[in-house]
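Hi L.,

As promised, AzlD domain-containing protein:
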Amino acid sequence: MITPSMMWLLLGCAVVTWLPRILPFVFVKNMILPPIILRWLAYIPVCILSALVMTNLFDANGSYVTFNWPILAAFIPTVLIAIWTKSLSTTVIVGVICMATIRFIF
C-alpha cells in the first residue's frame, strides 16, 4: 500500500530529477547562443556516452586495469554499426542484441 508520505517522496524525486533536465532548455529557448558555445555543446553527448562506455569497458583489479571482455565483445560490433549507419536507434538495437546474446551464451 502506498502511503501519502511515499507519494510525496515519489513526487519530490520526480521534481528533483526533472528540474535540472528541463530548466536549462526553458532558459535558453529564446536566447541566441554564440557559435563557440554551440560548438562546445555539440561535444557533450559524445563525452557523456564515452564516459558511460569507458567505465564499463574496463575493470580495475587492484593495481592493474583489464578489459571487461563480454562488454568489449558487444562494444566492437556496436561501434562498427554506429560508424556504418550513423543511426542512434540502429546502434542501440544492435548493442542490446549483442549484449543479450553474449549474456545468454555465457
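The first strand starts at residue 58 and ends at 61.

Thanks again for sending the construct details.

K.
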